[in-house]
Amino acid sequence: MADRLGKISAVLVALILAALTLGSAAVTASRATSWSLTPADWAALRFTLVQAALSAGISALLAVPVARALARRRFRGREAVIRLMAAPFLLPTVVAVLGLLAVFGRAGPVNQALTWLNLPGFSIYGLHGVVLAHVFLNLPLTVRFVLQGWFAVPAERFRLAQSLGMGPAAQFRHLELPMLRSVLPGAAAVVFLLCLTSFAVALTLGGGPKASTLELAIYQALRFDFDLGRAALLAALQFALCGAVVLATLRVTQPTGFGAGLGREVPVFAPGGWRLWADGIAVLLTVGFLAAPLLAVALAGLSGMGSLPSGLWAAAGRSLMVAVISALLSAMAALVLVLAVLRGARWLEAAAMLPLAASGLVMGTGLFLIIHPLLPPERLALPVTVLVNAVLALPFLYRALLPEALAMQADYGRLAESLNLRGFGRLRWLVLPRLARPLGFGTGLAAALSMGDLGVIALFAGDRAVTLPLLIQRLTGAYRMEAAASASLLLLLLSFALFWAFDRMGGRHADA
Amino acid sequence: MKTLPLAAGLACLATLAAAETPVLTVMTYDSFAAEWGPGPAIEKGFEATCGCDLRYVTAGDGAALLARVQLEGAGSDADVVVGLDTNLTALAAGTGLFAPHGQPPAKSLPVTFDHPLFLPFDWSWFAFVYDKTKLAAPPASLEALAASDLKILIEDPRSSTPGLGLVMWVKAAYGDRAAEIWGALADNIVTVTPGWSEAYGMFLEGEADMVLSYTTSPAYHLIAEKDDSKAAAPFAEGHYLQVEVAGKLAATDQPALADAFLAYLGSDAAQAVIPETNWMYPASTPAAGLPKGFETLIQPEKSLLFSSEEAGTLRAKAVEEWQTALAK
């Protein structure tokens, strides 16, 4: 009975996802008057693919040593470093770009140091700048995904490997490599898909029209040309790319099959010598790379604290409410999907990844076309934002849950069956405790993402439903860059607090 | 079932209240309706006389605004649209969604602009803004800028109205030579941003020597921040204009109120709000004149502006020319 309920709700979730992503694109297409792509669109497609592939590849490569160092070393501040890992990803892109420019820009310390050393200056603008920014934004997320993978390997396996006399190289081959094969393709795919829909970062740091992405082409089609057909075609292209990537990931990903452990954190053996140094350097470099732009954002934010507008707290409250509700919705939906995938419905995986390929603009436009004849859209601004944010965050939650869920199924599935542990009992005694850690992490991520999102609200908002990101956009649009920097700092702190609260909640329940 | 009469009563009350105060819905861009924009003061001033409730509905910037008008079509709740850019008026007129405004033409534009559907409410010249303390001798023309090794930030004409304005500026000044000028400018351009705020923010952070903005931008720093270090460089070719216009939607259910609002928008009371909230020139200078500080701004001798029709036909080709020249 409960299983049937699970199946029905999973199908329902998949339908909602498909309706909001593919459906909204279809509605947009239904109003099309012409169907053609320009040569510039194809150039945009090429650039989009190149930068997304580079960003994903580099993020994935760099994430491995960093995650391994964090998994096997114990040092003061380790927890803080792991939590810091989420921060760049939670930044609104415009704020992140300004933070990066404060460090790597023409007037930043990197170039000042180069001038001081009589070396030629470094220009961040170009393909390398776009990739740098995308790695800054996504490396931390990749590290967290890979780290979840390391945590999913029972510590007993590492101890067994040591007692068998396996050196670090053999451990890598027999334990870490299989784990990476199950985690890394999915993580890289998420980064690839995120960069696929990049717009502001690619354009701002790309240096010119050579760096146009598909999302910019969609923006132009919708805003300046009002060419709904072209926008829908471009959206379809994005979906096709997403589908190809998800299928490829499914083929490469393999379950690990390490078997169950006691689920206790056991001190991990960490090799000394040069490996200790390598781990130390990996962590230090990463922390420096991630913290410097964040510090710049914080410093810039402090100066404008006196000039914050009166609507700030109301906007912050609205954003918090939207973030918490959409994160909880998203967590429930992701759990339902993951459990259904465990029962064999692998096709649902595609539904879970769909939102990553969805253009926020096309989704917003489609929803607008549906809602407008029925109700004034501004009246539904917040509910629509909650729904869309929940949908957009779902792939991250799903990705975070899947590896541990697969491990749980392999390790405890048969035991649970033989105990006839089903339905809500299984949820209460097996699923929630085993998945608490990724669930907390993912929900926190979803809340913070929703907090910083500006996609849909900008299309729907009247003057009564202003959220914090919208307020920041309005401030920067009216010369108030200092106040905007302060509001951005507040946004960053709130997003981070939300993420931290959920992440911690998950971590605490995992140990219980 | 007891709640039914209550609900009915409430519904009646709601209709009564609605009948007593008609609602005028004004669709505008974000920063117009923001608490520091002209929106709140204009709302207060108009509501004091109209016996109505003025509500703003917002949509991004000028281009997003037109997209929203088109999305809503004839079923729109909005009565008036405030904030379209002259480069987009041909497109807006082509939708057939706008009705003649019937107001007298604006008095203080540097060019004649008398469009039956669109009423200017403010304007400024596009210009490259720089920091006087860092750049002592700014270039005196677009061509001199292109020949220099100064670094500039511009906006993308495919996603922002100032970006489109610059493309039109080069086209209006150089016609068939536009592509050549863009080719020469290419090595000056640090980057092309999606919107005005990214470019301007990056300029303030020291990422470039000059940024494409307005001749009125320095007034913000001078008046609001008591900082006189910013200036706009006068260019010999003349400066392209941005004229922001308002229009009445044909499908409005409050035509009389919409007319009254457009008349109010052109009045001294509303026009006096514009300079220090939108940081643009009012379309008709109020009797009290401009705020102190505006007299320090440069006054280009030559103003460039394509007519709506010309801009409409030129736009796609000019943007393509820009794109080809910069993508090399």
The count of domains of chain B is 2
* Tally of alpha and pi helices of chain B: 14
**Fraction of residues in helix of chain A:** over 70%
Profile the largest sheet of chain B.
12 strands, mixed
Shape of chain B: globular
Helix-and-strand structural type of chain A:
mainly alpha
**CATH secondary-structure class of the largest domain in chain B:** Alpha Beta
Low-confidence stretches of chain A: none
What percent strand of chain A? Answer: under 5%
Give the overall pLDDT of chain B as a whole number: 90
What's the β-strand tally of chain A? Answer: 0
**C-alpha geometry of chain A:** globular
Order of helices and strands of chain A: HHHHHHHHHHHHHHHHHHHHH
What is the averaged pLDDT score of chain A?
A: 83
- Proportion of helical residues of chain B: 40-55%
Enumerate the spans of chain B where pLDDT stays under 50 for 5 or more consecutive residues: 9-17
At the fourth level of CATH, the homologous superfamily of the largest domain in chain B is: Periplasmic binding protein-like II
The separation of the N and C termini of chain B measures: 73 Å
Assembly category: heterodimer
Provide a descriptive summary of the structure in words.
The complex is a heterodimer of chains A (512) and B (328). By secondary structure, chain A is mainly alpha-helical. Chain A has two domains: 1-30 and 310-512, MetI-like (MetI-like fold, Orthogonal Bundle), CATH 1.10.3720; 47-188 and 200-210 and 249-297, MetI-like fold (Orthogonal Bundle), CATH 1.10.3720. Chain A contains 21 helices and no strands. In chain A, helix 13 (274-303) packs across helix 21 (481-511), helix 18 runs antiparallel to helix 21 (481-511) and helix 20 (468-476) runs antiparallel to helix 21 (481-511). The radius of gyration of chain A is 23 Å and the shape is globular. By secondary structure, chain B is α/β, with parallel strands linked by helices. Chain B has two domains: 15-123 and 242-296, Periplasmic binding protein-like II (D-Maltodextrin-Binding Protein, domain 2, 3-Layer(aba) Sandwich); 126-240 and 299-327, Periplasmic binding protein-like II (D-Maltodextrin-Binding Protein, domain 2, 3-Layer(aba) Sandwich), CATH 3.40.190. Helix content of chain B is 41%, strand content 20%. Chain B is built from 14 helices and twelve strands. In chain B, strands 1, 2, 3, 4, 5, 6, 7, 8, 9, 10, 11 and 12 form a twelve-stranded mixed beta sheet that branches. In chain B, helix 7 crosses helix 14 (308-327) and helix 8 crosses helix 14. Chain B is globular, with a radius of gyration of 22 Å. In chain B, 53% of the residues are buried. Mean pLDDT of chain B is 90; it is low at 9-17. At the A-B interface, helix 5, helix 10, helix 11, helix 16 and helix 20 of A face helix 2, strand 2, helix 4, strand 7 and helix 9 of B.
